[in-house]
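Readers of this paper often ask what the protein records in our data store actually look like. Below, we set out a record of this kind in full and without editing:
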Amino acid sequence: MSSRPQDDSEPGDGDNPGDSPAGPAPSHPPEGLVLVSTPIGNLGDITARALAALRAADLLLCEDTRTTARLLAAYGISVRTAPLHEHNEDRQIAHVLALLREGRRVALVSDAGTPLVSDPGYRLVRAALAEGLAVTGVPGANAALLALVLSGLPPQPFLFLGFPPPRQAARLAAFAGLRAAERAGLSATHVWYEAPHRLAETLADMTQIFGDRPAAVARELTKRFEELRRQGLAALAAHYATTPARGEICVVVGPAPAESTPEQDVDALLQAALATHRLKEAVAQVTAATGLPRKQVYARALELDGRAKDPG
């Protein structure tokens, strides 16, 4: 017997093929503010409803109008465009809300994938909802979800965490906070985006905090040079340390394994930190990662450091 839940959607009246899940797109594009998902690489991944929404828009808000212009040109779409990005979103909101009050259709796209997911638009959506204006969406491509299902790692539950902090100290602190949540019971696959020039050091930081877990790096998904590497974090860090990455990148990290004893966990973290840092710096990193008292971590570090210097 199938475990798939029953379809509770309302049946159509039979007059409009768009009422059927298997029928063509509805003839009337959605009203109000429409969040339109666009391809993450291969332009053939655009949906029929997305094209209809773009053609019907009175205004198309784009993260970068030059990027969206290539998509529009590929499908012969002529529509007025305007930029909406992190630097001008607040200034654009009043104008866009005025258009929506007049009954105009406004579409919002990011450079690739689903709007608002690590992209601009959240403040605009919140403002439109606060005024009771219509906000709807056209689903489509999303790099994080594609990376997750191709990774070979458990697909649910998962956490999408956006981009890690660009600076190492903040990044290690963020990873340590997540590791603390895992010790408290969180068990999920993690999905991040990352810039290519930071990939190797981010993977190394992940290895330091999370250990050598199963992971995957998905690069340039749906594009000509698509790459999926499924290895442990340490091997991935070593590979990209000598083979610089290019393009759009997702990092997927498997859930925490069954917890070791606190002593084993601290020892592993200290040994990894002592291999590349002075004792004081190693103690600071492991204290932040574990939340244990500094004196306790320091005492254990002295013991381990002493063993390493005097193996006999």
